[in-house]
Structure to design on (376 residues):
């Protein structure tokens, strides 16, 4: 499996969860390293196939900021916006280089937006007619909204057996103990709202929106209510991830950087540096990310904030450990939806080519999945 991911924290989450899982993982830091800077580079793609190929399946989640209606400065002509189209061109180039084999299968995801004809053409076999994306909202598969486009050339079956049940699932049972959905508080009477379906709004990734006012829960406390935004664990559950999938590796990383990249070197009497304490696998964070420190009420009385590698951004965003977790969840996919879209892959390959992946045997904690055995 070849991962092309420029965010080193996201890479660390993947490595933590999928180390020693029976799959050989290769990590490429920049998309440009396999594609080229502007136009597609045939030699780079050919080298990719020679080193890691043949490539059977491409999954892509290109940056969405330039297409999102929530971004006031969206610009479909920006450099970041071109990744969505470049993935389609990469797939065509792979098909060309791997000629004689079955076509590369793909799923490319992005936000729902208008005027996507040029993007559609990049994923189509013909020049004049584009591939229309599927539009799927995760609220039909679980407790969390996530309306997205999926450009896909894999046959996708009916979802009615899931959506008939999951569409009626509310987020209440996914919240931490004692908390309830704010929607039940602001509407009239508990009797009237008991049967009302409440879905969490789509989780967002930008620093200014990861904890916005749409992501609130409440807990009764004597004669008042305690309000909080959704926790990391709640967001993991609602997106279909096992609890701790994001939180545990990010906590381990931030603890390691705080202790061995800063505290130990600065308190060393022998003049040692981070290279004497920090594992070499983490040295690259000093090159890829910026570091910042914020006051904190508990020992060591500061907390590390790490910038995400947002190339071209004049003012980088700095995330604390908790914020980075929420940032990654906001950038992620709804697992139940992707499960459904990819389910028919099993029908495209001979049984003797398939083997079970048992690293995560996980049943989503809502119906109809609770009654089924679901592997992710």
């Amino acid at each position: 499996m070849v991962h092309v991911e420029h965010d080193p924290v996201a890479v660390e989450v993947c490595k933590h969860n999928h180390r020693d899982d029976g799959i050989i993982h290769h990590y490429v830091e920049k998309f440009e390293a396999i594609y080229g800077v502007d136009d597609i580079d045939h030699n780079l793609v050919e080298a990719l196939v020679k080193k890691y190929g043949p490539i059977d399946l491409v999954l892509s989640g290109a940056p969405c900021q330039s297409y999102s209606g929530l971004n006031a400065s969206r610009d479909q002509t920006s450099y970041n916006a071109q990744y969505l189209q470049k993935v389609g061109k990469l797939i065509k180039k792979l098909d060309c280089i791997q000629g004689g084999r079955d076509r590369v299968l793909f799923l490319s995801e992005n936000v729902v937006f208008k005027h996507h004809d040029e993007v559609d053409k990049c994923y189509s076999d013909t020049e004049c007619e584009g591939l229309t994306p599927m539009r799927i909202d995760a609220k039909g598969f679980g407790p969390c909204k996530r309306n997205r486009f999926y450009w896909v050339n894999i046959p996708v079956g009916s979802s009615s057996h899931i959506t008939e049940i999951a569409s009626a699932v509310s987020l209440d049972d996914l919240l931490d103990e004692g908390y309830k959905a704010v929607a039940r508080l602001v509407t009239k009477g508990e009797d009237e709202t008991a049967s009302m379906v409440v879905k969490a709004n789509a989780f967002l990734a930008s620093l200014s929106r990861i904890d916005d006012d749409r992501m609130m829960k409440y807990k009764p406390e004597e004669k008042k209510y305690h309000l909080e935004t959704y926790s990391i664990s709640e967001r993991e559950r609602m997106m279909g991830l096992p609890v701790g999938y994001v939180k545990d590796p990010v906590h381990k990383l931030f603890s390691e950087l705080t202790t061995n990249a800063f505290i130990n070197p600065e308190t060393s009497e022998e003049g040692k540096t981070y290279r004497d304490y920090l594992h070499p696998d983490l040295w690259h964070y000093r090159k890829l990310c910026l570091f910042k420190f914020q006051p904190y009420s508990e020992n060591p009385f500061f907390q590390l904030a790490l910038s995400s590698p947002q190339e071209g951004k004049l003012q980088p965003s700095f995330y604390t450990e908790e914020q980075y977790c929420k940032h990654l969840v906001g950038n992620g996919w709804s697992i139940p939806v992707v499960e459904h879209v990819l389910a028919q892959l099993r029908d495209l390959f001979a049984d003797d080519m398939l083997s079970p992946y048992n690293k995560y045997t996980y049943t989503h904690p809502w119906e109809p999945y609770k009654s089924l055995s679901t592997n992710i």
